[in-house]
Amino acid sequence: LNFQQATFLTSAPDIRALPADEGIEVAFAGRSNAGKSSALNTLTRQKSLARTSKTPGRTQLINVFQMNDQQRLIDLPGYGFAKVPLAVKQKWQKALSEYLIKRQSLQGLIVLMDIRHPLKDLDQDLIHWAVESQLPVRILLTKADKLSPGPRKKALLQVSEAALAFMGDVQVQVFSSLSKQGLPELEQALRLWFNP
Ligand code: GDP
């Protein structure tokens, strides 16, 4: 499994427009600005596979990247924009929970959170839905380079402890697209999901 081989396959306006539910896929989710695009670019060693810094409130698409016809990375729209109307938020939340429950090819969920602002309400909702769907979750505490080693370790311990409360398979690691800290761990975890 070579993440460098990842290429853009398609953008889907909603879950129904995703490619056929075959093979294996892993989804990436997080609040806007959590560092999701940067993490995908770091993982695939590509400068601009995933677009960084999008316009808030714009119609958001699900981007699909594939390593090959049986292995996909799903870039879910960032959430948490204050400006998005409530009805749009609720519609998206329903679609997202359905995706987590119904998608057979979905093997795991990566949830990205800024290490300085972890476990906001929507992050927690998302993790709850995943756990309810028996889906393993890996939390990436992103932008780890923004903290010095002491506070970084403290944040990891705090979130690891909080993760126990979800009562599911919820792993936690630190990550930095800038320093590449946590990249080997992320790759190892993804390899296990893609090769069960
Ligand atoms: P997205 O909205 O979740 O896709 O977030 P982006 O990947 O676009 O990143 C949001 C902002 O955080 C950008 O200004 C990035 O340069 C910055 N950023 C992302 N990852 C890191 C990181 O590991 N370290 C630092 N210092 N900044 C980062």
Automatic annotation (TrEMBL):
Asked if the record carries the keyword Cell division, the reply is: yes
Superkingdom:
Bacteria
Q: Which CDD domains match?
A: YihA_EngB
- The stretch of residues making up the signal peptide is none
Which keywords does this chain's UniProt record carry?
Cell cycle, Cell division, GTP-binding, Magnesium, Metal-binding, Nucleotide-binding, Septation
Required co-factor?
Answer: Mg(2+)
List, for all copies, the residue spans of the domain called EngB-type G.
22-196
**A Pfam family for this UniProt protein?**
MMR_HSR1
Job description of the protein = Necessary for normal cell division and for the maintenance of normal septation.
What family is reported?
Belongs to the TRAFAC class TrmE-Era-EngA-EngB-Septin-like GTPase superfamily. EngB GTPase family.
Protein name according to UniProt: Probable GTP-binding protein EngB
Q: Which organism is it from?
A: Alkalimonas collagenimarina
